[in-house]
Specification:
130 residues; alpha+beta; Alpha-Beta Plaits; 4 helices; globular
């Protein structure tokens, strides 16, 4: 079973505001990882339930309406400690995941959704190492 999945935007790094807490430092051009979920298999399943991939693995295009549906699911489930502990299927406890993984990633994705609404030409994809 793989470990990593996340959201990549094809956007110049200079367009990313400094208040976002990105998982990695990126060069000024190219793809920017907006959110990264490591060993959070329940989150992966929530995301894939919206994207409906035809096969496992690789990269999936994320449209603006997909991102909004994903955010609704993430907000509904990930802030619920009981869901995280019983269905989140992660090696991280709720307390470990909340500050960096849950809050930062959802905040970053909310910003990305607003950016995509204002810039319909920007591309985003979800990668899945499974």
């Amino acid at each position: 079973m793989g470990l990593d999945n996340g959201f990549i935007m094809e956007i110049p790094r200079t367009e990313i505001p400094s208040f976002l807490n990105l998982p990695w430092d990126f060069p000024d051009s190219g793809d920017v990882e907006i959110a990264y979920w490591r060993k959070c298999w329940g989150v992966r399943e929530l995301i894939l339930s919206v994207l409906h991939p035809s096969k496992e693995g690789y990269e999936y295009i994320v449209e603006s309406e997909d991102l909004n549906a994903i955010l609704n699911k993430l907000i509904d489930k990930c802030f619920n400690k009981e869901w995280w502990e019983n269905e989140g299927d992660s090696i991280w406890t709720f307390e470990e995941a909340l500050p960096r993984t849950i809050i930062d990633n959802i905040f970053n994705l909310k910003w990305a959704a607003a950016y995509m609404a204002a810039h319909p030409d920007v591309k985003m994809y979800f990668y899945d190492s499974y």
